[in-house]
Design brief:
heterodimer, A: alpha+beta, Porin, B: Phosphatidylinositol 3-kinase Catalytic Subunit, Chain A, Domain 5, Immunoglobulin-like, seven-stranded mixed sheet, 14 helices, 18 strands, about 30% helix
Chain lengths: ~450, ~525
Amino acid sequence: MRRERLFVRAQPFRRTLLAAFLFVSLFLAHPSYGGANASPPAPAHGDAGGPATDSPRGTTRPLPRNASPLSYALRALLVVPYGATRAITWPVEEAALLNEKHRISERITSLMFGNLSGGRTTTGIFFGYESGIGVSVAGVTTDTPDFLFAGATLKMKTGYLTSRENRISLRYRTAPGRISFDMKGRFDHRKNRPFYGIGPDSRDNDTYADLRRAILEGTVSTRLSRWFLAAVTGYVRDLRLSEADDRDNAADFFPALYATAEKSRYAGVEMTVAADSRNRGGYSSSGTLVRLTGGFNRATSGGDADYGHYAAEAQVFINLYRHTRILALRAFAEGVEPKDSAPLPYTELEHVGGKNGLRGFGRDRFVDRKMALLTGEYRYRATEHIFGTLFAEWGGVAGEWDEFKPGDLFPSYGAGLLFGSKGDRLTVTAAISREEANYYIGAERIFSGRSRRFR
Amino acid sequence: MKRRRALCRTAATWSVLLLPAAAFLSCASAPVLFEPGAAVTNLDDMKEIPEPAETEFYRLRHHISNYVDRQIRLQLDPLPSRPAADVNRFGEVPNSSWYENRPDLTPAQVGRGAGGEDPGPEAHFPWTITGMKSGGRNPGFLFRDAGGASYICKFDKLGEPVVSTAAGAIAVRLLWACGYYTPDDRVVFFHGKDLVLGEGAKKKLPDGSKVAIEASDIEKLLEKFVPKRSDGRYRALVSRFLPGRPVGGYSYRGTRPDDPNDVIPHQDRRSLRALRVFGAWLNHVDLKIDNTLDLYTEEEGRHFLRHYLVDFDGCLGGYWAARHEARIGHAYEFDVGELATGLASLGFRPRPYESMTGAVHPEIGLIEAETFDPASWKPNYRNDQLSSCRPADTFWAGTVLGRIGEEEIAAAVKAARFRDAAADSLLVKILVERRRKTLDWALRSVTPVIRLEEVTPTTGGGFRVAAADGLVEYGLPSDLTYRVEFVGPKSGRSHRLAADAGAPGVEVPATAVQDGRYARIRWTATDSTGRKLPS
């Protein structure tokens, strides 16, 4: 009985197979792939008034290609993978054609942002993929230079392609100058976000929760010299945790967590000084970056503790060969110091893991009051616009600096590709660690640093 | 059900059997005999046709197709391309709407290019601006000179004065001398006061709408993009409007459906395949559809399409001005083969071109002769025509290239009007050396026997065929020795010509003459390293 059912189900597949085979045969019988591109019959050509010939060559027979039967047989085999590829590329080409012919993306942009800034709005698509998280960021970004003719840039980002992470952000900044102003507002909603236990050895303690964040911040920065800059940032932040579907609540699951709260609200100010001699923002091939940050956070929701935070980062880019073979090194340390050693909300602690550091581990895999990260990455040019990368990272957390042991820095290794020429690039990265293998696709810059307020 | 299965099985069996048989039969070949008659020197492909619709160039689709589909198709196809179809019995390309033989040009004619005796727009100031240039990377405008001729005016790229305009002016002349239809492009100098804004002149906005050009638009253009010389003049490349109505570029493959004269697939045209050779010589990497143009033109009362090459500012390393990429001429923009080997080597084997430091002279792009290897030269994109270039096509291109000497090259380079005279001599030196390398490679792609016209009967029923060594004929040192075979049912004989014979001429014995009419002779050359060149 079972065999009969299987047979009945197999019949359509066989017919499809046969039809495909006959199609390929007919396709091959055609003198060239591509239908309309086939050779037509030889034309009647000749000198005016001279003897007409069926071909300018003086023969009616086609000249042979001098190819072996093996080549023809090989070509017959290659039709299948080629056909399969074509089935993918053809719709993409047609979609591109449709878009260009009817200026679809341009029209959508003009509809959305028509006269906001004299028609100078540009629109792009951004996305990212992170294994374990899914499509982490996907959506549309618009950039309006000279917003309202004030010499400032308005940038809007929105994304909703996944049930795991959605965000909307708005950024307004003045043109770069000696003193510049930058204002950002952002709301995001991450569903089923994994939460790990505190401390270096917490694999079994993970749970999931939904996280909603609203952030508003303003930064005034000044360039003190060619390489030195300073910035002061003020911000307010509201974070809320809620129970994930069919999951335990983080607070219930981690009774030992420092004051795990369902919500926290902080206002803060921080100052950053940096010396930056890198030659290109996120994809530098030479130069160094040294950055020191310190700030104070005041709880405004009541019940939570105030705390100070600090971070130090050093990046060194060594140009090994003509800016096409680069060794990039990074050391990063960050810590929080609660007032009177009071417990802090889980969401205010330091963390490491994921695409911004320790890529072989899950996002925010390690959480505690102190964090350290070391990264070494070798980038080499494979061909124009494409670099290969090999990297190794060590990172970990501890309650206090003196509690750090060498074994608490967990290794993660990986390789990847960098596509693109200038500015934004597409990165494809695979990384492994003792716990898992992760994959990342996105346009985010490696070593771009990170803001603790946006974690 | 059983019957259907049997039917399916039978069909599948026949398909399996017939497929290799068909493949085998299709490649089986018999000797091809040419019909008696004179060689065709003109193709009658300029018959009256209805006006074709304009085809547009869609950049994004073109790039997707180029970077993915075309790469896969051309890289994986194990079959060699078909022999060229637009050639006569001697393998020459007859005159047509695609190509015109220009064998006896003087250096002065090469220096003037397609424009001939026309003094150009500098003799006819003021220029009335009629529109702004749209498309392409360089800014520019359209104008009509006081003599009534219309031009498009383009400038150099920001920060790279002279490079693009010089490259465009030189390459257009050399490709015209090679036989292609090209526009009349020339380097000009003008003052701001030589420009007059035409009535009703409009520019196209990115959203497709058109607005009137303001005088300030021109001022901004000149101020922002064009460096003013010390004498107050601006440098530009102007291209005279071609006669007829432009109807778009021609495709890499197949034919144009609405042109009944276009019957030979473009990838099978020797004249287009030969751009692989001329392209290597001139480093014409930007060989794309957008840089070709079909013109619906009228001549002697007939309307037909003439096919042009346009936009040469990426030649001679001029592409460097647009993109500072060392791979220009060495790798495709997206090169799967190079990517695979590059990734595998982990960067420990730098490619030879990676050590290049940049342009050889501030007024010249990235072009050099020292490491240049015509056989491994690559344009920016895979192109069906260039990929279809067979040894016979390469050889023919070599015979055309052989007619362009140092004097012709120097005349073309002079048209660039370099600021620095050293740039003139440097570029001539580079082009002459690249020509030598290209010519040597092209002529050695087959056994280079040429000038087979002379046949003298000998006593005893045989005849003597006079022939020449192509390398010697075009001024290159020859290390070739020739072996000659008389091929036929009764004449399986071969002999080696004396190394000092000087020419591959041969006496055909009466036994090798078939049907009292012809003999089939196969020359095979061997070079000093022992490598046999294809017959």
